[in-house]
C-alpha cells in the first residue's frame, strides 16, 4: 500500500486540518487575528451609520480618512504576521505605533476596542518565538 488515501476518503478533512494546524503553529496566528479584528473595529465606526428609530447618526469627521489609513495598515500588518512570520517583530512594532496613533486620529482608537485588540495582537506578535523542531533528547542516546 502506498499510504495515499482515496479521493472520497473521510480522512481528507482530517488531513487538511492537520496541514492547517501545522501552518498555524509556524506563525503568530492569534496575533494576526487580533490585529485584523482591531483594525476592523477602528474602521467600522467611521463608515457605519447608527439608526435609532427615525434618527440616523453618522460619524463624519476627519477621522474617516485617518481610520481608513490606520485600519488598512493594521490589516496589512496582520497579514504580514501570517504570511511572513520572520518579520513578526517589525509587524508587531508597527502595529503598536499605529494602534497608539489611532487614539487621537480615529475616534479614540475605535472607542478603545480596536486599540486594545491591536495592542494585544502586536504584543503577541513581538513575543512570539518560532517553535523548534522536536529532536531526540541528548541524554537518551548516551548509555547509563
Automatic annotation (TrEMBL):
Task: Kindly state which keywords UniProt assigns to this record, in alphabetical order.
Answer: Membrane, Transmembrane, Transmembrane helix
Signal peptide annotation: none
Keyword Transmembrane helix belongs to the record: yes
- Per the record, the coiled-coil ranges are none
Q: Where are the transmembrane segments?
A: 29-47, 59-79, 86-105, 111-129
Q: What is this protein called?
A: Integral membrane protein
Q: Which organism is it from?
A: Streptomyces fuscichromogenes
- Supply the source organism's classification: Bacteria, Bacillati, Actinomycetota, Actinomycetes, Kitasatosporales
